[in-house]
Each structure stands twice: as structure tokens, then as C-alpha cells.
Amino acid sequence: MSAQSLWKRNFTYLFVSKMCKITADSLSFNTILWLLVLGGKGAIGTAFFIAVSFVPQAIVGPFITPMMKPHQLKFWMCFADLTRGAIILVIVVSYFYGFTPLVLIIGCMLLHSATGGSYEPASVSIIPKLVHEDLIQKANATIQSASHVVRLVTVTICGVMIAFVGVGYTMLVIIPLYLLSALLVFMISYQTEVIIDKAKKGLSYGKRLIRGFSLVRSHHILFPLAIFCVCSNFAAAPWEALSVIYLTEDLHSGPVVYSFIKVTTALGAFLMGFVLTKIKVNRYGLLFIGAGIVDGIAFFITGMNALLPLVFISAFALGAAISAVNVPEHTMIQLSVKAEDQPQVYAIINMISYLMIPLGALIGGYMATLFGSGYVIAAGGIIEAVSGICLLLFTKIGKVERADLTIERDKPAVNAT
Questions:
Q1: What is the Cα–Cα distance from 292 to 132, expressed in whole angstroms?
Q2: Which residues, if any, are the signal sequence (predicted)?
Q3: Where do the structural domains in the chain lie, given as residue ranges?
Q4: Topology alike, domains 9-186 and 205-409
């Protein structure tokens, strides 16, 4: 593979496929949310829907990925796309027949989310097989940057389509998007070396599962990364959960301002992703932790000072931090973990960090009733900044250079116990 160009056939297929898939996912979430609202399912229905739309994906991933092999990645991605398309088809048919009970919708969306447990790890692990090693960071940043723009545009278009043609006909658009995504992934071709890993040969599924957690725990670079992901997601959860309350009660603003804040977050993520496509980072860990520290400081200042401009600064910082965290995280996994272990390692880190979001939101919501939204957001900022500073002081993640990643990858494999 030439290191000169990113836009070769295989990566182009992957990029377009992911944009189709992101568009379909965003349309699915928003149309079904409105289906529940317009169908009178109430707050309980929407709360269950939001819960099953995100949590199963994080939980299922570590249990699916031990079965993944490098040469099968695109088939796991195709399977996820086709399954999601079939699920949406079931919901569409039920809607047009006037049969949309809450149990059916929640059950379908639970399966819809669970399929992400195979797609996301596979889609991250397939990138090193499609682009030159020197272009992995650029590939991750390109996808990260474009995805935020696509999500923002999709939410806007979705609202217009629902208003003009209704929920049912809007959902019909989703199915061909999933099919196109699956077709493009299926057209990707790549070669993998057949490597017999002595640490994995002959292991049962249970031992493979345990081995994945052992890999993360023993990895000198990814273990501190996982710890900071946990702290960062837990600390950022109050902002995600309480920003609306903070805007309405402390800043006396409304939905229009909230929409602009979401746009500002997407803009921050896009710009940081764009910057990362243009520069080559050497110390990914320092970028990763540094972005979180800046994000935490922004949350602290915003929470302690009820000023609208500071809220926009925090929103921009959050967006920039998302790209400045995700791109190094993906790149460090792709460069420091053996190909056959990448899906499982990614899924485990994703699970233990992602589950902190609902926990942080619940605790933050309760604490906000006692101390106010602003102070809780500021406390989250302190947690994120302090945890980042501690990891820089007491671990070597801030000093890790690009060459150290491949050295870590080439170390002897961990044996399951």
C-alpha cells in the first residue's frame, strides 16, 4: 500500500459506507423517537428507548469480539448493516399496519443497538488493513471529522422530512442506506497474514473472553487510556444530562440557544478532526490526556460562572475534545495491539468507559437537585482535569511516542488463565 494517498478504492468504500451507516443510524434514532412521542408513549417510552439505544451496544461488544478473526471483519460489518435494515423494515411495516406497541419498538431497538457491538470494533480494526500505517491517524481523523457534519445535517433534514412527509415515509429512506452501506463494505478487499498466535491457539471462548480483559489490564499504554476514558465519560455526563437545565434555569435561555450549542459542539469536533488530518502527532497519549484536561477546565469555569459565552466555549471545547480523544484512542489501539486482538480490546475499553455515562448522568441529576446544575457541571470538570493531571504525573502515557506503540504491539502475547 502506498503511503502517498489516503483515497484509494478500499478506504473510499469504507468512508462512504460509514457515512451512509451514520446517516441511517441518526435517522433511525430521531424518527423512532418522534414515532414514540407522536404515538403518545410518553416520557417512560422515550426514556426506555434512549436507554436501549446505547447501552446494549457497549455491553454486547466484548462478548462478540472474541469470535472475530481479521479476515472476517467486513462480514461482521455487513451483518450489522443488514440486521439493522431488517429491524427498521419490521418497524416500518408495523407502523403502516397501525401496530406499534412500546414492547415491539423497545425490543427492536435493543437488537438494533446490540448489532453495534460487532460493527464498531470491526470498523476500527479494519482501517490498518486498508491504509498505510503512516496514514492511520489521517484516516481516523477524516472519518471522525466528517461523521459530525453528517450527523448534524441528518438531524436537520430528518426534522424537515418528518414535518412534510411523516415518520413512516422518513423511515423508508433508512433501509436503502443500510443496504448501500453493507454493499460498499462487501466490495472492500484486503489481505491478512495467517498468523497462528500461540497464546490464543486452542483456547475456549471463555478463556478468549478473559484474555481480552487481561490484554487491556497488562497493556502499559492502553490501561491508563482506559482509566482516563472512564473518568472523562463519568465527568462529562453531567454536562450532557444537565446542560438543558442549566440553560433554562440559570441562563434563562430556550431551545434555539440549545440548538446553537449542539451546532457549536459539532463544529468543535469537525475542526479538531480536520486539524488532525493535516498534522502528524507523535505523542498520542499527551494529546489524548491534554484534550481532556482542557475540556475539564472549560466545564469548571462554565459551571462556576453562569455566562452564556462560557457555555458556548465549553460546547466547542467538548466537541474538540471528542475528536482529540477518539482519534488518538483509535490510532493507539490500531498501532499497539495485534490485528487479531484489536476488536476485542476496542470493545472492552468502549464498554467500561461508555457505561460511565448513564451512571454519571444519574448521579449528576441527583446531585443537581441538592446543589444546582452549575456546581455539578463544575465538579465534573474538576474530576476530568484532576484525573488527567494525575495520569500525566504517575504514568508514562504522556511520554509515549509513536514508535513505542509498535514496540508494545510486538511484545509476547498474554496467556489466558
A1: 28
A2: none
A3: 9-186, 205-409
A4: yes
CA terminus-to-terminus distance, the chain = 38
Helix, strand, coil percentages (3-state) for the chain, rounded to 5, are: 80, 0, 20
Cβ atoms 237, 290 nearer than 8 A: no
Runs of H (alpha helix) within 305-410: 308-336, 342-354, 356-371, 373-394, 402-409
pLDDT category, 354, cuts 50, 70, 90?
A: confident
Q: Could you give the CA distance from residue 82 to residue 88 in angstroms, rounded to a whole number?
A: 10
Burial class (CB in 10 A: 0-12, 13-18, 19+), 40: exposed
Rounded to whole angstroms, the Cα distance separating 149 from 199 reads 42
- The pLDDT tens digits for 126-156 are 999 999 888 999 999 999 999 988 988 898 8
Please state which architecture CATH assigns to domain 205-409: Up-down Bundle (1.20)
Interhelix angle for 205-218 vs 342-354, to 10°?
Answer: 70
Report which residue type is found at 8.
Answer: K
CATH number of 9-186: 1.20.1250.20
Which residues touch 38 (CB under 8 Å, ≥6 apart)? 167
What is the rounded distance in angstroms from the CA atom of residue 39 to the CA atom of residue 398? 51
Which of 175-179, 256-260, 330-334, 339-343 is predicted with the least confidence, judged by mean pLDDT? 256-260
* pLDDT tier for residue 305 given thresholds of 50, 70 and 90: confident
Q: Is the pTM of this model over 0.85?
A: yes
